[in-house]
């Protein structure tokens, strides 16, 4: 059974897999709103070939622990089609909005009485 990632700080260097257990890449960084909040995005180096890769931002809320693996509900192509973000140049609100749209982070992630720790509650307004 899939469970939320309880210790995001321990993700660095871990491999990330898709829903059927195929390796997609490796966690390189965690990013929070404005660079100083709790992490809400995970920078994953997604494999693009034998030696290549691209850093892709994935919503932390979409990573789950399952069978000892960090898994996401996406395939490689979906991740590679995500908007490009250069976190070294600054992770802007526009970047976060574009990624939120792409990964369909929306009403289902909104904070509520039953879901106070939702992904949306971690995002800057």
What does it look like?
With 125 residues, the chain is α+β, with helices and mostly antiparallel strands. 12% of the residues lie in helices and 27% in strands. The chain has 2 helices and 7 strands, in the order βββββββαα. The protein is globular, with a radius of gyration of 14 Å.
How would you summarize the topology of this molecule?
Blueprint: E1 3-4, E2 15-17, E3 23-31, E4 41-47, E5 53-59, E6 64-66, E7 69-71, H1 76-80, H2 93-102
Parallel strand pairs: 2-7
Antiparallel strand pairs: 1-6, 2-3, 3-4, 4-5, 6-7
Distance between the termini: 32 Å
Using only C-alpha atoms, the radius of gyration works out to: 14 Å
Helix content: 10-25%
What series of H and E elements makes up the topology?
EEEEEEEHH
Largest sheet: 7 strands, mixed
Give the structural class. Answer: alpha+beta
> How is the largest sheet built, in terms of strand order?
1-6-7-2-3-4-5
Annotation, overall tally of beta strands: 7
Number of helices: 2
Beta content comes to 25-35%
Instruction: List the uncertain runs.
Output: 118-125
Summarize model confidence as the mean pLDDT: 82
Any idea what the shape is? Answer: globular
Q: What's the gist of this structure?
A:
It contains two helices and seven strands, in the order βββββββαα. It is α+β, with helices and mostly antiparallel strands.
Q: What structural keywords apply?
A:
disordered C terminus, globular, 2 helices, seven-stranded mixed sheet, alpha+beta, about 120 residues
């Amino acid at each position: 059974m899939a469970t939320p990632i309880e210790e995001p700080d321990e993700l660095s260097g871990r491999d990330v897999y898709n829903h059927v257990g195929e390796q997609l890449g490796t966690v390189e960084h965690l990013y929070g709103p404005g660079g100083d909040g709790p992490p809400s995005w995970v920078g994953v180096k997604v494999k693009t070939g034998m030696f290549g890769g691209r850093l892709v931002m994935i919503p932390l809320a979409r990573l789950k622990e399952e069978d000892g693996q960090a898994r996401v509900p996406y395939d490689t192509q979906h991740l590679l089609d995500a908007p490009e973000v250069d976190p070294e140049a600054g992770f802007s609100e526009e970047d976060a909005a574009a990624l939120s749209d792409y990964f369909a982070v929306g009403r289902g992630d909104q904070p509520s009485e039953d879901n106070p720790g939702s992904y949306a509650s971690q995002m800057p307004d």
